[in-house]
Amino acid sequence: MASYKNPVPTVDCIIELSGERVVLIRRKNPPLGWALPGGFVDEGERLDVAAVREVKEETGLDVALVEQFFTYSDPSRDPRRHTLSTVFIGRAQGEPQGADDAAEARAFPLDALPRELCFDHGTILADYLTYKRTGQRRKL
């Protein structure tokens, strides 16, 4: 049987909170830094279900997904391996609490995001801010 090296599906979620804030987690494990809540999709799991599960595990928040934003697939986006991340936009209430593999979870104003972002999450958040201002999504 042939051995294939395929990309691994992941999800990330841009969680909007009141006051024009988004939720980020500070990762416990490498790569270290701030990131959108998210993670690997389990076998047999839908992408939307994985996003809701990962948000709950890492932040304690119950998120209502609003839309599927974009899928990021640059082979260099994750230094551990080639991943494909489907990013959702969701809304939640309350304040996040770091749990699972999140050392901390915090809500940041859109104009005061941390610089130490993991993966390609700086690009994702820049795309999101453009989308919020203009309604324009990233072009393929």
What would you say this structure looks like, in words?
By secondary structure, this protein is α+β, with helices and mostly antiparallel strands. The protein has one domain (8-134): Nucleoside Triphosphate Pyrophosphohydrolase (Alpha-Beta Complex). Helix content is 19%, strand content 34%. The chain has helices spanning 47-59, 121-134, and strands at residues 8-17, 21-27, 34-35, 38-40, 64-72, 83-91, 102-109. Strands 1, 2, 3, 4, 5, 6 and 7 form a 7-stranded mixed beta sheet that branches. A hairpin with a 3-residue loop joins β1 (8-17) and β2 (21-27). The longest helix is centred in the last third of the chain and has 14 residues, at 121-134. The mean pLDDT is 95.
For the secondary structure, the number of strands is: 7
- What's the CATH class label? Alpha Beta
Backbone CA Rg: 14 Å
Q: What is the overall pLDDT average? A: 95
Shape: globular
Within CATH, the superfamily carries the name Nucleoside Triphosphate Pyrophosphohydrolase
The third-level CATH topology is Nucleoside Triphosphate Pyrophosphohydrolase
> Which architecture per CATH?
Alpha-Beta Complex
Helicity range: 10-25%
Q: Output the structural class.
A: alpha+beta
- Report on the biggest sheet: 7 strands, mixed
How many helical stretches? Answer: 2
- Beta-strand portion reads 25-35%
Q: Show unreliable segments.
A: none
Q: Tell me the distance between the termini.
A: 35 Å
Helix and strand succession? EEEEHEEEH
Number of domains: 1
Organism: Cystobacter ferrugineus
Family: Belongs to the Nudix hydrolase family.
InterPro entries: Nudix_hydrolase (IPR020476), NUDIX_hydrolase-like_dom_sf (IPR015797), NUDIX_hydrolase_CS (IPR020084), NUDIX_hydrolase_dom (IPR000086)
GO molecular function, one term: hydrolase activity
